[in-house]
Each structure stands twice: as structure tokens, then as C-alpha cells.
Amino acid sequence: MHESISHPPDTIGLAAGLYIVATPIGNLGDISARALLVLERASRIACEDTRVTGKLLHHFGIKARLTPYHDHSAASLRPALIAQALIEPVALVSDAGTPLISDPGYKLVADARAAGVNVVTVPGPSALIAALSISGLPTDRFLFAGFLPAKAGARRSAIAELAAVPATLAFYESGPRLAACLADLRDGLGNRPAAVGRELTKKFEEMVTGPLDILAARWADAPPKGELVVLVGPPLPAAAPEADDIDAALTAALASLSVKDAARQVAEALGLPRSDVYARALALRHG
Ligand code: SAM
After folding, report:
1. What's the predicted TM-score (pTM) here?
2. Scanning 4, 93, 192, 202, which has the fewest C-beta atoms within 10 Å of its C-beta?
């Protein structure tokens, strides 16, 4: 005799849990095979905007079971999604890219974990990583700061907080604010190398690179259209002091200090190895 086991039709082979599913940032060809499988089989898909996700699912012939979700959605919605994810597969998508990256989902994932839900990643596109990967700026360390504040004062304070961070900085920005943002970055961080990624993965994709002042001037009178990522290289290394400057500092210090103390003071002030400065101080005193 044949044993027949019945499954809910759309959950076959997909374990219960909360699936965080990345979707394309402009090019539908970037959807992953696994994202399609999970979206097809999830009992429910929580999304930012049901029209946006409805269109995406329609394109791939997937029947929508959509629930609008924001982290500030009705308090009852999150527990309901979590209760469902304990027994069935539930997916979370955003309008585009990776959920939680400047998009809703943080509270849902945090609460789901606390409730013992199996939280699963279905990774894929994100504008941040797409931009970094083609900018030519250092990628070994980066800090993603999301959207800078729209008001100039708050934006400048936020930039000042980032000035000493030894990493590439990444921001999301809109066309109308781009030039002001780039000018504030130049004033707050110095004229560092930078890059602006526009309409990534879409027909008019471009990556424009250059120092912050050139990029700020480029869009000062003509804000670009489309979606943007702004990247700024790490702090520029301080220029090494010239030999004449070291001698001048040592001569001034030797007027009142011993060779040892003068060397220590100047080495600390100029960020130089103490032994090198000591040798030079000796030569100046006795030479
Ligand atoms: N979660 C998304 C991700 O993983 O990239 C980001 C969502 S955030 C609300 C949207 C912002 O991402 C846009 O305003 C823009 O700054 C940036 N962005 C999204 N798609 C982009 C693209 N194709 N090219 C450049 N920037 C993009």
C-alpha cells in the first residue's frame, strides 16, 4: 500500500522559519533561484509595499500572499508573523535589495530570534555592496551610514562624527540633495577620493569617481536623476614632515631641553620614531 503524506501545497520542502529574501535593485535578472523558490513556497510574504512586490511576483508567475509590514506596523502584526513563522515558512522582502539595510525588518528579526524562530538568510543584491564592488575605493574596511540627515546642520554634525573613522564611508542619497551632501562631506572630511554610483544594475548605470570637490561641482547645478550610493575613501595619510621642519622643531626644543627630552617631545609632536629624532638631535647639538 502507498502511504500518502499531505503537505500544504505551497510549503513542500521548505522548513518553517522567517526567510529574509533579497530582491533585485533594478535588474530583474539578479533574482536568485533560491529567492524564487522561497517566495513560491512561503505561506506568507511580508513586504513594504504590496504593489511593488506584487509586480515582482507577477513577473515571475508567483501567486502573491502578501502582508504589508513596517517596523512601525500595528503592534499585533509582528507577533502574528512570528507565530506563523514558528510553524510555516514566512518570507520578508523589501521594495528592492536586502531587507533591513536602510529598510524594514530589524524589529521583526530581533523579536523572531527572541521567540526561537528559525531565521534564514536568502542573500542577494544590495546597492551598498554593488557600489563598493565597482568603486575602486578600499573595501577591506567600510562603514555604512545609511541616509545622512536632510537638514544641513544635522548632516554636518553626522559627518563630523565620522571624520576619524579609518574606513571607506558609504551613504545612500537622493539626487536633489547630492551636491549639498558632497560639499558638506568635502568640508567635513577633507578632499578625499570618492565615488557616486547611480542607477546600479539598470540601463543607465554609472560609477563616477574623483575627489569630493570635483564631484560636488559636477552636480552643483544639475542634480542627477535616479538612485544613488555615495562612497568616500578613508582619511588621507598625514604628509610626513620635511627634514627642515624637524630640524626647526629640534633646534627650538634644544634651546631649553636635554637632547633626550627634546627628541622625545619632537618625536611625539610630529609622530616620528624617537630613535631617529634622537640621532638627529645629537647631530644638531654636537655637529
Ligand atoms: N535595502 C536596499 C539595499 O539593500 O540596497 C536599500 C533600500 S534604501 C530605502 C533605497 C536607497 O538605496 C536608494 O534611495 C538609493 O540611495 C539606494 N539604491 C537602491 N537601488 C539603487 C541602485 N540601483 N543604484 C544606486 N543606488 C540604489
Report:
1. 0.83
2. 4
